[in-house]
Structure formats: structure tokens, C-alpha cells
From TrEMBL:
PROSITE patterns in UniProt: RH1
GO MF annotation terms: kinase activity
Keywords, comma-separated and alphabetical: Coiled coil, Kinase, Transferase
All copies of domain RH1, residue ranges: 6-94
Superkingdom: Eukaryota
Residue runs in coiled coils: 60-94
PANTHER family per UniProt: C-JUN-AMINO-TERMINAL KINASE-INTERACTING PROTEIN 3 (PTHR13886:SF3), JNK/SAPK-ASSOCIATED PROTEIN (PTHR13886)
Name assigned to this protein: C-Jun-amino-terminal kinase-interacting protein 3
Cross-referenced Pfam families: RH1
Length: 100
């Protein structure tokens, strides 16, 4: 019988990676459905589909991780932008004072 109890998967580089909770929850739901299909019909029913679904879940997890990294980077850039705007306004006010 096919087992997906582990939340750890191998990525292309051979290192073990822990899936996000979101993807892990989806994987568990899909696993239960595969188990139901195997119990009702046979293992052959999901034999070809299982690797495709696992690949999709791994890619989804990678995209979610990348998205989280981009969100963190965006927040840092927003903070930098706010600091630059503040500095610009300060310099602008100082120049105006110096001209007067």
C-alpha cells in the first residue's frame, strides 16, 4: 500500500524539506481520498496519479515559500522607502530654511 504519512519530502537537491502546514493539510486530505479509492477499487487506480499529485504539492509548497520570501522582502523595501521619504522631506525642509 502507498504511504504518505511523512511531511518531509526530498527536493531536487536531495535535502529533506518540511512542507508548510497549508500544503501538509492538503496532502493529508488527498492521501485520505487516495486511501478511500484504493480501498474501494485497487492500488492501480492511483498508481500513475500519485507521483503527479506529489509533484504538484511539492511545487505548490515551493511557490508558497517563495511568495512568503517576497512578502518579507516587500515589507523591508516599504520600510526603506518610508525612511527615504522621511529623509528627503527633512533635507527639503533644511534646504528651504537655508535659502531663507
Amino acid at each position: 500500500m502507498i504511504e504518505i504519512d511523512e511531511v518531509v519530502y526530498q527536493d531536487d537537491y536531495g535535502s529533506g524539506t518540511v512542507m508548510s502546514e497549508r500544503v501538509s493539510g492538503l496532502a493529508n486530505s488527498i492521501y485520505r481520498e487516495f486511501e478511500r479509492l484504493i480501498h474501494s477499487y485497487d492500488e492501480e487506480v492511483v498508481k500513475e496519479l500519485m507521483p503527479l499529485v506529489v509533484n504538484v504539492l511539492e511545487n505548490l509548497d515551493a511557490v508558497l515559500t517563495e511568495n512568503q520570501e517576497h512578502e518579507v522582502e516587500l515589507e523591508l523595501l516599504k520600510e526603506d522607502n518610508e525612511q527615504l521619504i522621511t529623509q528627503y522631506e527633512r533635507e527639503k525642509a533644511l534646504r528651504k530654511q537655508a535659502e531663507e
